[in-house]
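Holo model, 5-O-phosphono-beta-D-ribofuranosylamine. Inputs:
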Amino acid sequence: MPNHKIRLAVFCSGTGSNFKYLHTAIAERPLDAKIVLCISNRSQCGAMEYARENGIAAVHISEKQFASYDEFVASMLDALHEHDIEAIMLAGYMRKVPDAVVAAYPDRMLNIHPALLPKFGGEGMYGIHVHTAVLAAGETESGATVHMVNEEYDKGRIVLQECVPVLSGDTPETLAERVLACEHRLYPAALEKLLDEMKTAEIR
Ligand code: GRF
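Output:
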């Protein structure tokens, strides 16, 4: 389809700095994609505010709003269908994406993780815990990983990685800052790669 912009959803729970960098990079490069939906388990957070300010549909979906897990999943799938979402970027989404949603987007859902997977991934490895573990292990480098999402935490195919040094005197906070800056470069590059893969799949 000529000039077809791939319709993206971002899933966020917090500040949403990766979301902002993605949104800006799409306009600046420019990329054949458009973020049209932000789904969050929190009604008020930096990411949702940014979406609202930028004319992106901001949809609050939390398991707590529903009588059953199935209804929660159905509502997430409905929102994705309603907005014709073709690919999903997880950007600081602090919940496990339901298996049915993962299954609906095979090779079409990316996550960014603040370490060099397969090390320092899995359940409980999020936020500052990751950087604390990296320092405790005496690593000399850390970094960021973008990977496809499958049913297992942080186990999908690795799409891109970038390293940053661990410096003497680093605290979890200073390391987190260096890794986050790396994430902001890496996620747009990974999106570009995904879009290329999607285009190639379309041609075949
Ligand atoms: C990032 O470190 C990302 O790797 C992790 O959560 C953090 C989100 O930060 N999954 P932000 O909300 O994009 O600023």
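The chain has two domains: 1-105, 111-204. Strands lie at 6-12, 33-40, 57-60, 87-90, 109-113, 141-148, 158-165.
Archived with the compound record.
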